[in-house]
Amino acid sequence: MKKVICIANFLFGNASGAQSLAKTHIAALYQTFGEDNVVVFALVGTEKVDTNNRYIIENVENNHFKRVINLIKGNTGKINSEIIDKIIETIKARKADLVFVDDSIYGNAIEIIKKGCPNIKVASFYHDIKRYLAIEWAKKNPKSIPIQMSLVLNEWKTARYADVNIVLNSREAKLFEKYYHKEPEMLLPIILPKQEVIHKTQQNSVCNILFVGGYYYPNVNGFRWFVEKVTPLLKVDYKLMLVGNKMDLLKEEFKTNDNITVLGRVENLTPYYESANVVIGPIFEGAGMKVKTAEAFSYGKIYIGTNESLEGYKELADELIGKSVFVCNDETEFADTINNNTFGTFCKENYDFFIENYSIEAAVKKIKTL
Q: Model confidence over 59-74: pLDDT tens digits?
């Protein structure tokens, strides 16, 4: 059985799509190669660490001077020369066959690892294409330009030195080709654990509409847009629920609307998904694939979303479009879809769609080809 080293930097801290995906990648690696054959280096910064795991925790000291030195050495994110040396020692000690890097910003580390271990194969997963996003981030925060330059350089090195570059979908593949002048070696879409859900539908007296997402500007902008533009056009009785990390910051803004409930982070999303008739994704900005879209499918939910929120899903959902997956890009399309359809609380077709394409079992089939 192959021996694998995994390097991941989203495993701790506030819940996010990247965190869900990183944890699922590790679960897929365990299932593919066997848990005893996978060593995980968890890179952390100031996040609170849950020690109840088998990860090797590596912490970069949050010291401004050392961070500058680290940037000068070509490193970015939560890695430094000492951590890279430990990874190389572990590769040699374990006689590892593969390094799986769960981000595209560690190209400098990959270059050093390849020089220290010439026979190792490296696969790198791109949560998004940093070369595309860095310019926008630099515009929003000019002080971050040195960091953005380091991200871009590191991603360029990843594309050059990784044996297998893995992107989420065809849009990301086109961006990868545009900036790095070659095709990525693999497409691996969002993957999540399957949920134990109630496999029967029920009709509610009102249409329960659910939006799930953390306090991140595309989510905040999208929810505000839906309330302002879509809800005045709804002709059905409805309840709109917002759930997400720090989304309770919006509670005051919508407290006068009796149809809207705003919650922050909850320990268990299952009750909110199970009672929902439809999950919405009014997202107009971003990159990559939206983890919450796959999460909705994992609960067997009817989904109404924009082109952006369904990026990477539409290509495989042809038979579901217009039946249980609805593509809506303006307020009229959203409102008409909700007004003119009756939705139950479970859709077997969407649940099966998730299992076939976005479950850990589906990912294992691809990861075996590494």
A: 887 777 777 888 888 8
